[in-house]
Structure formats: C-alpha cells, structure tokens
Amino acid sequence: MNIETLKMFKDLIDTQNFTKTAELNFVTQSAVSQHMKKLEIIFKTKLFLKKNEKLELTEIGKIVYQYSSDIVSKYSEMLEKVNLNFNRSILGEVRISSIYSVGIYYLRNYIREFISLNPNIKISLNYMEWDEVIEKVIKGDADFGFLACKSVNDHNLSSIPVADEELVLVAPVSFKIGEKNQVPLSYISSLKLVFFEKNTPSRKFIDNILKKSNVKLNITMELNNIDTIKAAVMSNTGFSILPLNSVIEDEKNSRLKFYRFTTPLYRPVYMIYCKRKKFSKEVNRFLNFILSKKKEKNYNE
C-alpha cells in the first residue's frame, strides 16, 4: 500500500466516478479498479458498495477514508513546505487539451516523466472531443492539443505527427484463435464488431483502411468512448479495433485479449499548437520534451 493508492481511494469516493478519478491521477480506469482491489485485499474486506449508482462506504471503508484523507492532506502539506524550503514554487503552467484515448493511454506516461523532471511546472490536462480540442488551441485556451488519425488543416496551426499507435483486434477473454497471436485483416469480416461512432475521426480512419482492403463489416454497436467499447467487448457483445496501448493492461489482468494483424496497422497521433503564439519558457520546455521523445523513439526503431 502507498500514498498513491490511498489518494485514488479518496478521489474515487469524493468524485463517485472511476473515469474522473483516473483523470485526476493520470492513470486508466482499470488501474483505479486494480488499486481498489489491492486495498480491499490488504484490509480483507469490502470498503464500498455500489447502491443506486452511488458508492457507499462500509464501516471499515469509513475508517479507511477518514485516515486516507488525513494522510493525503498531511502529505500535500509536507510537499508544500519542502517546496517552500527549497524555493521551488510553480514557475509556469502548460495547458493541454486531448481526445480521451490519446490523453489517457499515450500521454500519461510522458506527462508523469515531464513532471518528475520539472516539478515546478504545472500540467493541466483536459479531455475533449476532436473539434473541441482544435477550438481550445485556436482560442488560446490550450497551449497544445493532441489528436489521432487526422491532421489539422488550418493556416493558424502547426500539426506535428508525434507517434504511430499500433491498432489491434480486441476480443473477449474467452475467445481463442488456435495458438495464433496474429490474424489477417480479412478475418474481421467474420466477426460482430463494436466500433466508434461514424462521425469520429478514429472510425473514419479505420473504415477507410478496411474499405481499401475489401473487408466487409458487421457492426452491432457504435459507441463514443474507448472505455465503453472495451466494456462492451468484455461483455461478449462483439470485437473491436483499438490502440494497443489501451488494452495491454486489460490483457495482463485477463479482462480482454488482443491479436496483432499480420500486416500491422497504425493510427497517427498529432500534436497541434498555434504558429504565431509566443511560448513561455515552460511551454517551450514541454514542446522540446515531446519532440525529443519522438526522436528517441525513431532512433530506437
């Protein structure tokens, strides 16, 4: 058990929402669930129950919540005093808007690393729809935007490809394709599919790839959120095509399976920012950090 786990528990009870708790702690929803399970294993009892769409604390849960709040508060107080002692006040802020799947599954580890290297720079990360990300950057309400599948064609914006995320076939954990861990793209024609909604860039991007490969689609459900798509696959509603980063943890914990395609598929990830905007030193530092990670990845490949 650590302070990070206690903070997640406190945040979950305060927000009553797994997604918000994940966002507050720069982790996935499944990671929050795993931390809660570990906490209940440690105390050998349930800490909360779901009743009428609310999380209600058990008697033991109330005790753990009270002390978790005290511990987290004391820890925050300690950090503040340490920062004051070493004169490490916040120098500046980097404001980021991102589509959910990129922010939670691609950006989170980079943000953690950047914060560890630059503890006096604040990172504000907000999850939005594709069009809203662009609007925030154009209006100046965000320094950077992160999108997938489609670059932005706007003379005011720079749109830089920063990564290529591998796409994989995602299947219920009970499903098996012999001993193989790869499938041809044509295999999709035989499956019931759960995809993103038609108007999303990710859906258009995948549809275009499948159309070029003459793959017929049998779509049984359309959803607008990557976590709801995974939940649908977990409940045996169908199969999906999702970024590998978003399902690695689920396979490790036996909640989903994924199969790579024999001809690998990738979706591009773009970072956007205003061309004419003068950046602060802190914002420039984040830009250079992301670009260095891109160069580092290309070098390793």
Query: What fraction, in percent, of the residue positions are helical?
Result: 40-55%
CATH superfamily of the largest domain: Periplasmic binding protein-like II
The appropriate CATH architecture of the largest domain is 3-Layer(aba) Sandwich
Separation, N- and C-terminal Cα atoms: 37 Å
Broad CATH class of the largest domain: Alpha Beta
- Overall pLDDT: 87
Shape: globular
Q: With helices defined by DSSP (H or I, 4 residues minimum), what is the helix count? A: 10
Uncertain runs are none
Q: H/E order of the elements?
A: HHHEEHEHEHEEEEHEHEHEEH
For the biggest sheet, the summary is: 8 strands, mixed
Q: Could you tell me the CATH topology label of the largest domain.
A: D-Maltodextrin-Binding Protein, domain 2
What structural class do the secondary elements suggest? Answer: alpha/beta
Number of strands: 12
Radius of gyration: 21 Å
Work out the strand percent.
15-25%
Quickly count the domains.
3
Write the layout of secondary structure elements.
Layout: H1 3-15, H2 18-24, H3 29-43, E1 48-51, E2 54-57, H4 59-85, E3 92-98, H5 100-117, E4 121-127, H6 130-139, E5 144-148, E6 157-172, E7 182-183, E8 193-196, H7 201-212, E9 219-223, H8 226-234, E10 240-243, H9 248-252, E11 256-261, E12 265-274, H10 281-300
Parallel strand pairs: 3-4, 3-5, 7-11, 8-9
Antiparallel strand pairs: 1-2, 5-12, 6-10, 6-11, 6-12
